[in-house]
Every structure is written in structure tokens, then in C-alpha cells.
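User:
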Amino acid sequence: MTIDEVRTVLYVGAGTMGCANSLVAAVAGYDVVLHDARAENLDTVAHRHDEIAAFLVEVGFCSPDDIAVARERVSLAADLHEAIANADLVSESIFEDLDLKRDVHRALDQAAPSHTVITTNTSALLVSDIEDVVERGDRFAALHSHLGSLLVDIVGGPRTSPTTIDLLRRYVVSLGAIPLVLKKEHPGYVFNAMNGPVLSVAIELLLDGIADAETIDRTWMADRGAPMGPFGMMDLFGLDLVRDSWRRPTTDPGQEVSSDRDTLRARAVPFLTELVEAGRLGLKSGQGFYDYPGPAFQDPAFLTAAPTSPVVSDALRSALIASAVELAAQDVASPEDIDMAWMAATGQDIGPFDIMEQLGVDHFLSILDEEAEAGLLSHDVARFAADYLAVRPT
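Assistant: Predicted structure:
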């Protein structure tokens, strides 16, 4: 059911995220306006909605009849003032450029009705990077969705009111999605802050010649019961986007050690750039680490075609658990919410804290201590894991 405070939602940016989120909101019963300053982007909305609708029906999110009704609730608008005139909630999903986002949110704040709540779907920037350009700081927050997942992050800025956070939480629930209200802003939110290190370790293992991409993916899929491994995920995200994310400097204020990432960046960016310049962008270009359609990892025989690697298994698992513990140690979210975020985003039935417990607490704490001594991890993170697990109910 829709919530009383919101009847019309404006989505700014008619790219993949804007189109996906607008259709989900329309399925939930909201009137939706999709705005983009570029007319050619609006011209592609119908095709994008076709693709997204097929996915939503395939996974059982809604029926074809629901889609037909929902599409009648969506209107397109190239003019911002026309688009925002009746908006109760705004969601911005434009290109990840700070100056551009600040300009757009300044314009949204000036044009929107006084009651309108304005949100950003940024994945790379912080709320506090943007919020000072809007006067309605109490009605501004991050509302960050994950493509293909029901998880939605909610993060307030320095001035965001509890009323706004509550409205956004109830709005997410009304979409049939899963809200995660972070205790404070953090680069990558929760899921991306865990998945990013897993992908980084996968690239490092590949560049170091420890294992090839298929062995790394096969090992992760077998360990976690996942539908794809790190390199399959990178193909899904787009290797150009993965490469661009590596180009951005680390902004995590809680990360004490960044030299190792800087060293890996110097190797990963040229490697990924070579793939991108060869047109191997992943799923969207038909070639990446795998060929599409029908990538090798979707073959039922993929998991048994060759052995998995214990070295790869330990490295990927350690990256996941260490990043999860670090999030909890920094009080970004509780261990329970961190586990929930991982399960909601991946469809897996166990999160990193439960994985750590299954592996054996003492064994894994010794690994964290070794990484801390080597300068790969904060000593505070290792201590937090020990303190948390000492009192965690079983």
C-alpha cells in the first residue's frame, strides 16, 4: 500500500536506475514522473521499461497485468518545472559527478513545492557532499537502491529530520523492498562497502597469477551458493564502471591503510582499461570476462568442470568478513543489519558475521590479528570482532 504523504514521485535521470525505480514505484501504486534534460534519454524509456518489466515478472515481483497498469501511471517530462510541480518525493539518479549533482539539487530545491522530500540515489558520493546546496536540509537524504535487489539504503545528512527518515523507510516498505537505515553516512553504504573489497581481492588474485577468473568465480559460487562470482558481477556492473570506480581515490575516513589499495589501483586500472578499450564491457557489450548470452558460469557443469581453490576461498572470505567487521566497528550499522544487507542484496541465506562464526571464531580472529600486524587492517577492527563475538548470543 502507498503511504499517505506521497502520491507523486519524480525520478530525475532516465538511465537504467531511474527507469527501474520509476517502474517499481508505479507498480506499487504511485503516480510517477520521469524527467531527463536530454530528450534522447526519454526516447529510450519505453524500451528500458520493457526490459525491466520482463525481469520483474520473471522473478515473481509482479504480474504482467500489474505492469500494464503501472505503465499508465508513468509520464515523461523534459521540463523540470513541469515535472516537479506535483512531486511529493524526488529521487535523483544522474551521472556520478559532484558538481553536476550539486547543480541539479540546487535547481530541484528551488523548483520543488515546499513540502517535497528530495533524495539522491548516488552510489559514490556522500550526502554531506551535496546537502549544503539545498535549503530544505531537513527533507534531504540518500535513498540508494541496488539494481536487481530489494535492498534500499537510507542515509540522513547533517540536517535530515527523523520524520524524513521515517517517511523514507515506510516508502521503501510500500515498494515491497527492504529498507536499511544507516547510523551514519559511509562510502559504499553497507553492501557495496563489503562487495568492493571482495572484487578487489579477486582482481589481485588474478593479476598475481594465483588463479584465473573462472577458478575464482567457481570457488566463490561453490562456497557461497551464489549465482555468479566476482568476475561475473563485474561483467554485470559494466567493466567501464568498475574501471571508473578504481580511478576514484579512497574516501573512507575510517580506512587507516590505503597504500595497498593505491598499489593495486596502479595495476588494476591499466588492466581494466585494456579490456574497456577492446570493447569488452561485460554483459552490455556481449563480451567481458565472459561471453554473452550464455556465459560459462551459467552452465550447470561449471561448478564441477575444474577444482576450486582453498587459497582463493580464504582470501575472498577474509575480505568479506573483515570489511563487515570494519563497518560494525565504525558504527555504520549493527552486525545484524550488516548480515541482513548482505543476504538481501545477494539472495544468500547467511551473512558475514554468521560466516565468521561458522568458520570458528578463534581461527578467524587470528587471521584478523595477522592482517592488523601486517598493516592491512585496523587494530580497532580486530578488537571489535573479538569483543563482539565474546558477547554475541548463540
